[in-house]
Amino acid sequence: AEENVQVFVKIDDTRIMLATLSVDNHPHVLADLVFKREFELLHSSMTSNISFMGYKFDIIKRSHSCTKQGADSDEEVPLAIPLDFNTDG
Fold it and tell me: Among 13, 24, 29, 89, which residue has the fewest nearby CB atoms (within 10 Å)?
């Protein structure tokens, strides 16, 4: 369709507009976003399919048995999990 489509992120009860997509001028947008809480991606189109691509990082704790001082330490390490928002559900 020739409509402009607004793309939003919703965190808790707050909705923030990320971009406006246009078939002619801006058919896609590249953005590096980091969310530390649960979020929802939304769009305003009733006729177009919108795809989101990205990764979800879960923070896990890993213990290293050997460090420079010889003591154990905990380090937060991101675990990459691919997301596919172009599916129903």
Answer: 89
With beta carbons less than 8 A apart as the criterion, state whether 58 and 81 touch: yes
H helical segments located in 1-89: none
Q: What's the rounded Cα separation, in Å, for the pair 75 and 34?
A: 20
70 φψ region: left (φ > 0), alpha (ψ -120 to 50), beta (else): left
pLDDT band of 51, cuts 50, 70, 90: confident
Residue 69 one-letter amino acid: Q
Can you give the residue ranges of every domain in the chain? 4-43
What is the C-alpha separation between 81 and 89, in angstroms, rounded? 17
pTM here is: 0.59
Instruction: Tell me the residue type at 89.
Output: G
